[in-house]
Design goal:
Number of domains: 1
Strand order of the largest sheet: 1-3-2
CATH superfamily: Winged helix-like DNA-binding domain superfamily/Winged helix DNA-binding domain
Low-confidence stretches: none
Shape: globular
Helix content: 55-70%
CATH architecture: Orthogonal Bundle
Largest sheet: 3 strands, antiparallel
Structural class: alpha+beta
CATH class: Mainly Alpha
Number of strands: 3
CATH topology: Arc Repressor Mutant, subunit A
Mean pLDDT: 92
């Protein structure tokens, strides 16, 4: 819980809004930017590009540029990124199992912002 704990860097990355979606989207192999944007509904191209850059900086994904005509780029999970799939799967399963309870709790409190 210390403000200077280095784990905060990692937890901030994992807790970032689009990280979970990107990691899950790349679970079955490399994808191009446009395929990711199509798969992950609601993310803007700017935010997707920023998040991909951060994930690459943190060593969770790799970016491969293919020298073709036209050139294209693919993103893929690194071994470190793949190791994140197990805990994210557990969180996703928990979320799916408890959606009714969370929605009931929200309804009991009345209207509120989703973010």
């Amino acid at each position: 819980m210390s403000a200077t704990c280095p784990s905060r860097i990692v937890l901030r990355r994992i807790g970032a809004r689009w990280t979970v979606f990107i990691v899950n989207a790349l679970e079955h192999g490399p994808m191009r930017f446009t395929a990711l944007a199509t798969r992950i509904q609601g993310v803007t191209p700017k935010v997707l590009a920023e998040t991909l850059r951060s994930l690459e900086e943190d060593g969770l994904i790799s970016r491969t540029v293919f020298d073709e005509n036209p050139p294209h780029v693919e993103y893929e999970l690194t071994d470190l990124g793949r190791s994140l799939l197990v805990p994210l799967r557990a969180v996703r399963e928990w979320a799916e199992a408890h959606v009714p309870e969370v929605l009931a709790a929200r309804a009991a409190l009345g209207p509120a912002d989703d973010d």
